[in-house]
Amino acid sequence: MRILKILLLLLTISSTTFATDAALAKILASLTKEQHALLYQYGTLNTWAGPAVADSFWRQHQPELGSISPEQGKLLAAELLANTELSYAMKKPSRLQALWGVFTASRLLIGLAALVGAFAIIQLLGRYIPTLWRKLLRYLSPLFRWLFSPRMLTWELFIAGLAGVYWGPHIDSVEIRTGVIQVGLLMVWAQLTAILTRQYEVKDYLNVIKDCFDQYHTEKHAFLYVSLPALFTAVLIFGITRVCPDMWYRYELIVPAMIGLYALPFIPRLEPILSRVLLPFTYDRLRAKDRRLAAYVVVSLVVWVAILLLPIVPREALLTLTFGLIGALLLISMADVLHSNGKNYWWLQLVTLAFLFTVVLAGAQQGLLLFTWAGLGGMLVYVLIKYWEMPTMFGWSWKNKRAWGALGMALLIWGIAVLIRSRPEWFTLFPG
After folding, report:
1. What is the dihedral of CA 262, 215, 325, 356, to 10 degrees?
2. By C-alpha distance, which of 266, 261, 291 is closest to 279?
3. What is the per-residue pLDDT across 173-227, written as a single tens digit (0 to 9) for each?
């Protein structure tokens, strides 16, 4: 009996705390920019100047804050102080900014003058020294022809890409640094593929890659032409994450790594077994590319679980892989994609929902709000897809009824929004 009383007391305290948090959240959502600023100033004064100065500031600005009580004001101010990032925005031009603009304009004019001068010198050389120009072309044309042959140009671009990846992280400007690194990675990946396939035109080695995934080449060729360039690019991206302060390369790392994994020699041999995880029931109309897609999704799920179980979880790579898996599962769970029979179709629905729910729980455990939103967003998209798909499976036709269907979808979305608003605790899985 004593344990039951304690449990009832804990439940009462928890519901009261949630009600208070919900009320504060509603107030926070209704604040204007001016009220945000006042509460932020109030929290700053309360932290650094002391309660007396903060209380004086509160009394002075009480009319502007409306019906917010001092107790609510302290909680909201503490929340804003902990989760607000200030940014500098210039309201009016200053003399210093004007002088900075003048010097910038002068540098641009100097650069323009240099370009115009160089163009003029080239024109003068072409007009007054034609003999020298023809001799240079005659003697240097073999060198140019060799330097810019398809094979040599491929090697030159590959070396230039490696140079961009190596020196790019040391560039101070984030815009230039990002452009140099991204172009370098693209050139390394593409040109290494061209070198290994000995196909120096883009369309040619893209056809080779497609043939590798369609299993028109041997496993050795698939590893050389697809897996090796992708894994080499993944290693380069990993090296960039160690020396470059930009965060987005950690999200990109998983993409070439997974492409390289799909083309490893043992994956095609395991394809019939792996595809059985998503398509366990016998189905005569199953195409080879559908079985391959199912196998790739299963491999991605295995990698997803392995990353999640690591002692230190690389959250960026896990998040990128999660978005890819959500999209892939939503795609193959549609009846028109794999043309799967009834048992396989319902099994795919179960797997898709289980993964989406697991993503939500994993986001709560890892403390990743974006992770949880991805899972909830995937569930919403799943519900909308099935809203249009399920009636057709039972003989219903949306022909000439799409307007009514759109109205019903609007009501469905509105109902989900009302449910989230009325029962937010069902969707708040983060601990205390």
Report:
1. -120
2. 291
3. 888 888 888 888 988 888 888 888 888 777 777 888 877 777 666 777 788 888 8
Amino acid letter, 131? T
Interatomic CA distance for residues 390 and 397, integer angstroms: 10
Integer Cα distance of 199 and 210 in angstroms? 13
Amino acid at 307: I
Phi-psi region of 50 (alpha: psi -120 to 50; beta: other; left: phi over 0): left
* DSSP-assigned letters across all residues of 141-167: HHHHHHHTSHHHHHHHHHHHHHHHHHH
Helix pair 130-147, 95-128: axis angle to 10 deg:
110
Nearest to 326 by CA among 374, 265, 392: 374
Q: Find the helix packing angle between 174-197 and 150-167, rounded to 10°.
A: 140
At 47-66, the pLDDT tens digits run 777 788 778 888 888 788 77
Strand, helix or coil at 213?
helix
